Amino acid sequence: MRHLYVLLHRYIGLATALFLALAGLTGSVLAFNHEIDEWLNPSFYEAPAQGPRQDPGNLVDKVQAEYPRLQVWYMEYPDEPGHSALLAMVPRNDPATDKPYAEKNTVFYLDPVSGQTLGQRYWGECCFSRENFMPFVLELHYNLTLPGNWGLWLMGVVAILWVLDCFIALLLTLPRGRPFWRKWSTAWKIKGGHAYRLNMDIHRAGGLWLWLLLLPVAVSSVAMNLPSQVFKPAVSLFSPVEPSVYEARGRLPREELGQTQLTWHQAHQLAQQEGQRLGLTAPIGELYYSFEYNFYGAGFGQHDTDAQGKSWLFFHGTDGRLLGQEIAGQGTLGERFYRLQLPIHGGRILGTTGQVMIAVLGVVIAVLSVTGVYIWWRKLLARRSGRARRTA
């Protein structure tokens, strides 16, 4: 059985090493995504005007009037003074062809008091300019910048293999024979020596000491990439998880989804009223509209700072009725566990301390991937050398 574990660990590690190293390094940067982006692009975020903030709907109307071939699908509405509002836009359909206009996906930054446009950038543009760096890193981390859902699915499969390999790697550190604890204690130490020995110690001891951090990040990676396909069905085996509004609406025939009639003004007002009724104290920090499934989503809070995840309300895009709610700290155990995955993945479940831990862990993941490949390469050379001597 141990030989099987060795083979699984070797080939899973080789198959996922490049992807995990890339995900680790990009994830290390993304632990401070908002902070780094604001440092790189202060002109996008610093809103100088003073006074009462405009209603989010006014900002949406303004930018859509200026860019009639684009439509807003998502916005971040700041609670902190002097901070800009973010509005993400995608091309409208050309009535003549019923196909999207040849416009780029664009993100605008507006002063929420004056409505002045502070800056804009094209989402997903490559690569290392100030304005494009963090969006590019984000896309690279989640979907490798591949078209469609190919990147999400690929990284989801890598995440599943990573979860499996976490348990296999732990089993391989367990000693054969007795005394168990004295023999196992050597696996936790970095004794150093020549290059192979040092890499082996770093790979094994690093994985052991950080195993309880690596596994939750691996599990949350599955939740981020394959929520309805894998994560929720697996969690539902232990505790029920209701389908998301996306999933529920996706099962309806298109004619039952209705037509857009609710404005951004109305959606924001409805969300405020329903949030007050439910006792949600955090202000609305995010709003979005699903063109495909005709509903609005309103998120309460900023940048996933709630340790239990952000609370969301969802409203029908035709008549404004409440379609669903995801309240932080409420629901079944399975639903609460699912909502914890995003704060876990970004480290914000522990505040700044958690962000620092994720930043460090990302580098460790890359190191474990590189040392694993190095160990395989040295063993391959040793096996080839052994075969050559036997046949000489």
Topology:
Layout: H1 2-30, H2 33-40, H3 42-45, H4 56-66, E1 70-76, E2 85-91, E3 93-94, E4 99-100, E5 106-110, E6 117-122, H5 130-143, H6 150-173, H7 180-185, H8 195-209, H9 211-225, H10 227-236, H11 245-250, H12 264-278, E7 284-290, E8 295-300, E9 311-316, E10 322-326, H13 333-339, H14 341-346, H15 351-391
Antiparallel strand pairs: 1-2, 1-7, 2-5, 3-4, 5-6, 7-8, 8-9, 9-10
Helix pairs in contact: 1-5, 1-6, 1-15, 2-5, 4-12, 6-9, 8-15, 9-10
Q: Ends: how far apart?
A: 33 Å
Radius of gyration: 25 Å
What kind of assembly state do the chains in view correspond to? Answer: single chain
Order of SSEs: HHHHEEEEEEHHHHHHHHEEEEHHH
Describe the global form: elongated
Structure, described:
It contains 15 helices and 10 strands. It is α+β, with helices and mostly antiparallel strands. A hairpin with a 4-residue loop joins strand 3 and strand 4. The two termini are 33 Å apart. It has helices at residues 2-30, 33-40, 42-45, 56-66, 130-143, 150-173, 180-185, 195-209, 211-225, 227-236, 245-250, 264-278, 333-339, 341-346, 351-391, and strands at residues 70-76, 85-91, 93-94, 99-100, 106-110, 117-122, 284-290, 295-300, 311-316, 322-326.
In a nutshell, what does this entry contain?
The protein has helices spanning 2-30, 33-40, 42-45, 56-66, 130-143, 150-173, 180-185, 195-209, 211-225, 227-236, 245-250, 264-278, 333-339, 341-346, 351-391, and strands at 70-76, 85-91, 93-94, 99-100, 106-110, 117-122, 284-290, 295-300, 311-316, 322-326. By secondary structure, the chain is an alpha+beta fold.
